[in-house]
Description:
Low-confidence stretches: none
Mean pLDDT: 95
Bound molecules: (R)-mevalonate
Pfam family, one: HMG-CoA_red
Shape: globular
Number of strands: 10
GO biological process, one term: coenzyme A metabolic process
Strand content: 15-25%
Protein name: 3-hydroxy-3-methylglutaryl coenzyme A reductase
GO molecular function, one term: hydroxymethylglutaryl-CoA reductase (NADH) activity
Catalytic activity: (R)-mevalonate + 2 NAD(+) + CoA = (3S)-3-hydroxy-3-methylglutaryl-CoA + 2 NADH + 2 H(+)
Amino acid sequence: MKKIEGFSKLTKQQKIDWLCETYFSDDKQAHSYFEKYHNADENLQKLHDEFIENAISNYYLPFAIAPNFVINGKTYTVPMVIEESSVVAAASRAAKFWESRGGFKAEVISTEKNGQVHFMFYGEKTDLECFFTKIKPKMLADAQVITANMEKRGGGITDIRLVDKTSELANYYQLFATFETLDAMGANFINSCLESFSQTFRQEAVNFPEIDENYEIVMSILSNYVPECLVRVEVSCPTERLAVANLDGKEFAEKFVRAIAIANAEVRRATTHNKGIMNGIDSVILATGNDFRAVEAGVHAYAARSGKYQSLTQAFVEDDVFHFKIEVPLAVGTVGGLTNLHPLVKTALQILEKPSAKELMQIAATVGLAQNFAAVSSLITLGIQRGHMKMHLMNILNQLGANDAQKQYITEYFKDKTLTYRDVSAVLESVRHLN
Ligand code: MEV
């Protein structure tokens, strides 16, 4: 009996009971999992339960630290939330590498966010233009109740304009609004302003028959495409300082530049290349309570801005100096939303010494660049699997139920060997007697 009416009205315990009975043959064990992940601090548990509808448990991810990130001369200890084994180690390695080569140079280029009222208009364009010019001051005035506080702090609505999109879709127009939301991500603020614009539009249209009979507002929503909320980070050093493993510095730089050229030329490589960058960015975004889906959507759209999906990072050599940089749009906040609510998010922001949103843009983009440097460096030298599987070893051992003594023996055993799941499993069987 898998269909259920009124699930959201059940108590949390009833929801768990129903799930355990419906989906688990050993319903005692299933209950015990949910109980284990229930926080003993009831207030904390309630806080988490109230983030979303139908919460029945907590889902833990590791909260890790990547130290020694030098950005614009300041050293950051970066909190990262991610499940993938090798990401934090790679970020830390890249941070250390660049620390002794001048560190990361970051710059916020712009901080403008945007949203649209999407509507259809079937009348004369000149009538619409005239109507828009008349009601624009009223739209701004009516939104004052929403914008007053933001304006006091120096932000608010920066512009509203009428955009003709009829060449892309018949009768389609937009009210295109731009915003400065300071240290807030600003999603609620922007959406409230846009809905207020729609309301003013409707109210005013009543007095203009040439408009009133000819429009349909379809939706009012912020855009997660924020190419005007942009941050750039770069590193550089003489190529001779890049010597690693089996390559001298010049060879390494040439190979690295070629690897980036491939990511620019080939969408399949670009996707994986950018995924590696997002390993770094997302883990900072998650640790600081920001919306990683918004960031992901915006970043990938930006990667395709030329009409072709390409690398978010660029590399080149000039006068024997290797340059490597990233440019990404990041709409993030360090106030509002989860930042004031989730205790670990507050802790993460404290570790970052309470950054502004601009500073957080720089930190997240830096970790993305570092991650890409680490990944591409591995790929063009020893390959990715060696490091990856080493980090993954503990997951394999946990899966196979190894104890501490067995883990220690096997970690040592595979120190200088390439490992596979099968080999680990075979060696573990031979040392099952260790305690
Ligand atoms: C794995 O999570 C990320 C990489 O595949 C990124 C890359 O290939 O550049 C290693």
